[in-house]
Automatic annotation (TrEMBL):
It comes from Dethiosulfatibacter aminovorans DSM 17477. Keywords: Disulfide bond, FAD, Flavoprotein, NADP, Oxidoreductase, Redox-active center. One of its GO terms (molecular function) is thioredoxin-disulfide reductase (NADPH) activity. SUPFAM superfamilies: FAD/NAD(P)-binding domain (SSF51905). This is Thioredoxin reductase. Binds 1 FAD per subunit. Belongs to the class-II pyridine nucleotide-disulfide oxidoreductase family.
Length: 313
């Protein structure tokens, strides 16, 4: 049947595309399914400066286009289709989509994760134009500028301290009157003379004409609104929300092992607790979520899927 494959990869971000490249190069009949745009989060990044070798035309879209073309050149098939359900039991896995049903001997889950949004006006429109969800990716763009970090947990405070290496001032905006981060992390933050804190506050709106120009805060105790305007010599500033990630794993609930946050648990070979099912990229439990680690995961998952299929025959 034409809808039978060796490997089905769900998700066409860096992890999924790397999986597709390695699987198709291994002469596996490979299908990559993606319901939205190819590339995941990275296609919203204007400049990719920390992916090895991405020097010329190093934008998110251009990098993803090259990845997708490579996978297709080796024979991977890409289809735009929304996965509705998945049956991972047995030797033949079934993926039910909006436009059809597909089967495969192995499945690689690479649907990624998305940063939680503030949910205020202007946030979406100014993402990539002053609003960023990745300090490692974008800190350098804010060298000697002011930066606001939204959140109070471990990741928010750690990312804020990282940003102090670049920005002239970093203000943590937190809805409570104390941080939730570990005490050891807090101590380092309070000792950093580049850091300031705005307590009991939320972001109500982000404003700007093509670039972040101001941000509106609300004091949760008094209800008072205040607006910070970019310094006239700067013209802009950075906003980094770090209020957690949401893994795109709801379709796989109760089908593979996950942690409390909904991230898929794998071993170092990207194997889940289900035979023939692998996970790669931001969707799995890991310490660093970057293009380079997603691509590495994808390569490992594909190689392990090839070994699994070889052992089946």
């Amino acid at each position: 049947m034409e809808n039978n494959y060796d490997v089905i990869i769900i998700g066409a971000g860096p992890a999924g595309l790397a999986s597709g490249l390695y699987a198709s190069r291994a002469k596996l009949n490979t299908l990559i399914l993606e319901k939205d745009k190819t590339g995941g989060q990275i296609v919203t990044t204007d400049e990719v400066a920390n992916y090895p070798g991405s020097i010329e035309d190093a934008t998110g879209p251009s990098l993803i286009a090259r990845m997708a073309n490579q996978a297709e050149e080796f024979g991977a098939i890409r289809k735009k289709d929304a996965v509705l359900d998945i049956d991972l039991e047995g030797k033949v896995k079934t993926v039910k989509c909006q436009n059809g049903e597909y089967t495969a001997k192995a499945v690689i889950l690479a649907t990624g994760a998305n940063p939680r949004k503030i949910g205020c006006p202007g946030e979406i429109e100014l993402t990539g134009k002053g609003v960023s969800y990745c300090a490692t990716c974008d800190a350098d763009f804010f060298t000697d500028f002011e930066v606001f970090v939204i959140g109070g947990g471990d990741s928010a405070v750690e990312e804020a301290m990282y940003l102090t290496k670049f920005a002239r001032k970093v203000t943590i905006v937190h809805r409570r009157d104390e941080l939730r981060a570990a005490k050891s992390i807090q101590e380092k933050a309070f000792a950093n003379d580049k850091m300031e804190f705005l307590w009991d506050s939320t972001v109500e709106e982000i404003k700007g004409d093509g670039i972040v120009e101001s941000i509106v805060f609300k004091n949760l105790k008094t209800g008072e609104l205040s607006e910070y305007q970019a310094h006239e010599d700067d013209g802009t500033f950075g906003i980094f929300p770090f209020i957690g990630f949401t893994p795109t794993s709801h379709l796989f609930k109760d089908k593979v092992q996950m942690d409390e946050g909904g991230y898929i648990v794998t071993d170092d070979n990207m194997k889940t607790n289900v035979e023939g099912v692998f996970a790669a990229g931001d969707i799995r439990v890991k310490s660093l979520r970057q293009v380079i680690t997603a691509a590495a995961d994808g390569a490992i998952a594909a190689v392990q899927a090839e070994k699994y299929i070889d052992n089946m025959n």
